[in-house]
Amino acid sequence: MDLDKRLSKAKTELILVHPFVGTIAMNMPFTLSDQVETAATNGKRVLFNPGFIEPLTDEELTFLVAHECLHPMLEHNWRRHERDPKKWNKAGDYVINQVLVDDNIGMMPEGGLLSQQVYDDGGGTSDGIFAILPDCPEGGDGPGDGPGDGPGDGWQDCEDGEGTQAEQDQAASEMKVKVAQAAQAAKMAGKMSVGMERLVDEVLNPKVDWRDVLKRFVEKCRNDTRSWARPNRRYIAQGLYLPGVDGEAMGELVVAVDCSGSIGQEELNQFAAEVKTIHEDHKPKKTTVMYFDSTISHVDEFTRDDEVHIEAHGGGGTAFSPIFEKIIELNAEPIACVVLTDLYCSDFGPEPSYPVLWVSNGSEEAEWGEVICM
Predict the structure, then answer these.
(1) Residue 141 — very low, low, confident or very high, per pLDDT cuts 50/70/90?
(2) CA atoms of 355 and 362, how far apart (whole Å)
C-alpha cells in the first residue's frame, strides 16, 4: 500500500475508534515531504518524511498522526513566544505522548519522549514541563540528553505558526472552534475519554497560569523602580525634578520559601525553575533567598552572575513576620518579595513598603499583598 493511502487509513482508524482526534485530523491536510526529518506541523498542515514513516507499523503511524494533530490542538505552534524551540518541542511531546499512551491510541514509535515522572512533575502541562526540563545544549541534543524513556530530542516536529501575530491569534481561535466541534462529535459517539476531556477543557477554558503572574509581577516591579539618577523628563519643563524609571538594572529581589512541610518537592521544583528564569532574564543586583518556618532557618544571597539554587531547609511551624524582620535586619531594600507558602498562618506582621506576591498551594487569603495559586 502506498504511503498516501496508509495516511488516509490512519485518519479513518482515528475517526472510527478515537473520533475526537480523528475529527481534528480530518481538518488538516497531509503531505509527503523530504524537507522534514520525521514529521512536522505548523498548525495548519502536516508534513511527513516518506523515509521515516515507511517502516512504521500501522499502529505506529496512527500514533504519529494523532501526535501531530495534538500539537496545534494544544496551541503549541502559537504559544512558544521567546522560549527555546527545542525545549518547548520536548515539553509538548511529553504531554502529547503521555495522553496518547494513556488513551491507547496506536503505539508510540521508537524515539518518542515518554516519562510519567516528567509529566507529573510538570503538572501535565507543556508550560509546567518546560519549566523543569534542563536547557538544551548548544548544537543540538544527542541520545540520552533528556529525561524519559525516549532518547534525545524526540521528534522536532512543532513549527512556529506562520504570519503576523494577529494572523497567528486568528489561527489559534479557529483551532479552538475545531476542538470544540470535535469534542462534541466524540461525546455524542460516547467515545471521549476522561483524560482527553480534561485536556479539551484546559484548551477551551484556560486557567490563569501562576508562572505568568509571577513574571508580570517581577517585570512590573522592575519597571516601577525609580531613580534620582534618571529624572523623569516629562516634569522637568514644569520645574519639577522627580525620579524616573531606572531601566538599566534591576534592584534586589527577595524570595522566601516556606519549609514548614506544607510545600512538596513538586511545588518547590516548579517554583525554583521560575525563580531561576527570572534571575537569568532580569539579572537583579542581588537575589536573596530565605527559608523559613516559624523563624528564618537559612539565607542565601546570589549576585546577578551567580546561578540560583533553591532547596528546602528547616521544618516546623509557620510565621511570616520573621521574613520582613530579617529584611530590615539585613538593611535590604528589595524592589519586591515573593513568598512560596500555603498561606495557612495568621502571623503576617505589618505590611512593608515594597510589593509582596504570595505564591500559594493552599489558601487564597492574605492580610495584604497579592495572592496567586499554583
Answers:
(1) very low
(2) 21
Out of 3.40.1620, 3.30.565, 3.40.50, 2.60.40, select the CATH number for domain 211-373.
3.40.50
220 alpha carbon, distance to own chain's centre: 20
User: Which segment of 11-20, 217-226, 305-314, 317-326 scores lowest on mean pLDDT?
Assistant: 217-226
- DSSP letter assigned to residue 106: S
Q: Where in the chain are the domains?
A: 3-206, 211-373
Q: Is 261 helix (H, G, I), strand (E, B) or coil?
A: coil
Q: What share of the chain is helix, strand, coil (3-state, %, to 5)?
A: 40, 15, 45
pTM score > 0.85 for this model?
Answer: no
How much is the CA Rg of the chain, to the nearest whole Å? Answer: 24
Spell out the residues 6+ positions from residue 339 whose beta carbon is closer than 8 angstroms to its own: 255, 256, 257, 258, 320, 323, 356, 357, 358, 359
The CA-based dihedral angle spanning residues 346, 347, 352, 355, taken in that order and rounded to the nearest 10 degrees: -50
> Is the predicted pLDDT of residue 9 greater than 60, yes or no?
yes
8 Å CB contact between 154 and 113: yes
**Which residues, including other chains, have CB under 8 Å from residue 374's CB and lie 6 or more apart?**
210, 267, 270, 271, 359, 360, 361
Q: 83 or 31: which carries more pLDDT confidence? A: 31
Question: In the structure grid, which three cell numbers stand for residue 15, read together?
Answer: 475517526
Q: CA-to-CA distance for 168 and 176, rounded, in angstroms?
A: 12
Number of residues written out for the chain: 374
**109-129: buried (b, 16+ CB within 10 Å) or exposed (e) per residue?**
beebbbbeebbebbbbbbbbb
